[in-house]
Amino acid sequence: MPEFYQSITLPSFAPPSWLFGPVWTLLYVLIFVSFGWTMVQIFQKKFPSKLLIPFGINLITNLLWTPIFFQWRHFDLALLDILLVWGSIVWIMIAMWRKARWVSLLQIPYLLWVSFATVLMTSIWWMN
Fold this sequence. Notes:
By secondary structure, the protein is mainly alpha-helical. It has one domain (about 1-10, about 20-125). Helices cover about 75% and strands about 0% of the residues. Helix 3 (about 50-70) runs antiparallel to helix 4 and helix 4 runs antiparallel to helix 6 (about 110-125). It is elongated, with a radius of gyration of 16 Å.
């Protein structure tokens, strides 16, 4: 994957490929803690099951981005996908704010990174 990433036209602000692993490792820990805790609350019937919708959309679109971009090399679909990831994070933050504010706050690093990644993805789409 790093070879493909380096082979495409990248904007000047593109981070080095080695940075993605550590950043996503940290983000996946935050995602696992907040999503996992929320899922337990849903399954214990403390939270409504409709909360599964934004979390499910986020999980699916997050997991789909890598094959769309790196394997299928569809920059347009990858851009659409990352917009769905971003939107689902915002949806999660809004939906969880009154129920467990800390879950919403724990999404801030994830939202910031995906916001940056969306700008990066838009630039890659435009340049390639």
